[in-house]
Amino acid sequence: KHPDTHKIIHFDERGTAFYALGHARATGEPTVLVCTSGTAVANLLPAVVEASMDMIPLIILSTDRPPELHDTGANQTIRQVNMFREFTRWQLDLPCPDEKLPPEFWLTTIDQAVYRTRRSPIGPVHLNCMFREPLAPLPDGSDLSAYRASLAYWLDSREPFTGYPLPVSALQSQTMDDLASIIKNTDRGLLIVGSLRSRQEQKAVRALSQKLGWPTFPDIRSGLRLGSTDKQLVPYYDLLLHAESFAERHRPDTILQIGSRPVSKRLLQYIERLSPSEYIVVDNHPYRTDPDHQVTRRIESDIIIFGETLADLITPSPDSGWHMTHRKDSDTVDHILETALGRDNAVSEPSVVRLVSRYIPHDSGLFLASSMSIRLMDTYATPTGNDIRVGANRGASGIDGTVASAAGFATGISRPITLLVGDLALLHDLNSLALLEKTPVPVTVVVLNNNGAGIFDFLPVAECKDILEPFFITPHGKTFTEAASMFNLDYDRPDSAESFVTTYQKATEGDRSSLIEVSIDRHYSFDIHQKVHEQVIRGLSE
């Protein structure tokens, strides 16, 4: 009932949870998730896992039955206490409302919950709220003025009952001096930028990159991959690493990675082969993100503070042959892509992704589904489009809840967005298309429909022809015409690159959410990938 509360109601608990996740991802502030008891709570688990893994602030308020009904066979009653286990930063089983409990108890509990979801490591908090009948907030003649008397001063304020200032992350001077010394003695350095959470983080990392003068590999979630022409950025690093000639010529002495683990598997394999003498990872949480066990220094720090502090300790680096060869090779790849994808009017995954990155409007957002969508954008996107906000669920990298997360992300950034999604991820979250009518800004859904999980064409299981199609590709034969109609979305199905551009520009200029379905011939698209890779290898070796 609070007038300052923005509310979204959705009929599917799983979708609701992912909507809250997307909203919190966009704002960086906790979103509150409310549901009833029983399996309703269980449906929140996938989103809670993602929030935990990717450090997104959520506050879960689950309703529960009173203790005397637990383990009695009472309807809609399961064991909800500690249901999410290690995936929450804090959880508490709240007792049923009772005047014998001091009112301060409820306030200090709420303030602790908000603090625990916002402090590092950021993540979800679960308050399990038990109630007795009657559940409806009907007046019963009770006078609670005496009960509230001790809260008189708080009721007249706008402050929390218990204030929790967030701790400031201070870097030890010796740590930063050591790091500055390593950089000074590095002839061939490489900066890798993973996911960054705010424009302020992007600004600090960009300034550090410019001062370092090292070639910089920007992950698609960094905010530096799209709409940036900084000369030290190497946007096509994933395609460059296809070529052994490039990988052998460009072996860094020191790697500095800021932000979360990058999307590119090829980059991770490259680092593993290198076994660099110094591999330094900086992020704002204490967790080990090092599955290949290569990291030599792990620095927990606020990224803005780290970037500004290190930039003050190092001297600007002049342009070097080391940096310039990276950029020259990246420009070569750009020319190859323009030639290979620009002359063919047929639609393929690389061509559609490149067109979206080129024509996505300024001051909008982009949400990327897991599996192929985010990898395609990381690999093929042109860096010369617009500078936009990018979101994706990469904590656990599931395909569930993608549409709902995109809807929450759009509401959180208060800008129109494009959702790039595969057919299976869209089928998996079809209910959440209903949320697009509730977002205050339009969402343009671009679905790459290759009739199954096309990513497995690129994996070793592709050699096992007898099991590939039925068990891994899982073709379904569905299109999304009726789904768009059911959920009141504008719909189009362009069949060429030229018609896609026309359709996409019309959709993103409008004020309604829409669904653009691009039918992809899986085998043709695979061939395009292979031809591009071959041309990159040949072009770089020449």
Task: Please explain how this structure is put together.
The chain is α/β, with parallel strands linked by helices. It is built from 21 helices and 15 strands. The strands form three sheets. It has a six-stranded parallel beta sheet, with helices on both faces. A five-stranded parallel beta sheet has the order 6-5-7-8-9, with no helix packed on it. Strands 1-2-4-3 form a four-stranded parallel beta sheet, sandwiched between helices. β5, α8 and β6 form a beta-alpha-beta unit. α14 packs parallel to α20. The protein is globular, with a radius of gyration of 25 Å. The chain starts with 12 loop residues before the first helix and ends with a helix. The model has no long low-confidence stretch (mean pLDDT about 95).
Largest sheet: 6 strands, parallel
Tally the helices: what do you get? 21
Strand count: 15
- Rg computed from alpha carbons, rounded to a whole number of angstroms: 25 Å
Q: Could you tell me the mean pLDDT?
A: 94
Kindly, what is the distance between the CA atoms of the first and last residues, rounded to a whole number of angstroms? 68 Å
The helix content, as a percent range, equals 40-55%
Overall shape: globular
State the strand order across the main sheet: 11-10-12-13-15-14
List unreliable stretches of 5+ residues: none
Strand content: 5-15%
Structural class: alpha/beta
